Amino acid sequence: MCNSTISWVVYFFPRQALSIAATVTEIEHRVPLKRAGLPHGVAGVVAFLCSPNAAYITGQTICVEGGMTIHGFALDLSKLGT
Fold first, then answer.
1. Domain containing residue 46
2. Which of 10, 18, 46, 69 could be cross-linked to 36 through a Cys-Cys bond (beta carbons 3.0 to 4.6 Å apart)?
3. Is 31 helix (H, G, I), strand (E, B) or coil?
4. Can you give the CATH number for the domain in which 30 is found?
5. Is 80 exceeded by the pLDDT of residue 21?
6. H or E stretch including 5?
7. Which residues of 25-59 are buried (b: 16+ CB within 10 A; e: fewer)?
8. How many independent structural domains does the chain possess?
9. pLDDT at residue 13 in the model
């Protein structure tokens, strides 16, 4: 068994989409923490899962997404920038 993470991080979007101010505004509006994630936020969870402190955690997927799964990842970027 192994563990994994799922992330909602700005760096996962194509750079072209991030250059559109409306896209960043939409992301920040939709995420309950009102900001995009950063790579070190995910890295901290991964480091924990690799540590002895997580020895009894197995077969889990940890969401590191600022609460975005509350909305079911329902963000339609195709309508932005038009």
1. 4-79
2. 10
3. coil
4. 1.10.8
5. no
6. strand 4-7
7. ebbeebbeeeebbeeeebeebeeebeeeeeeeeee
8. 1
9. 55
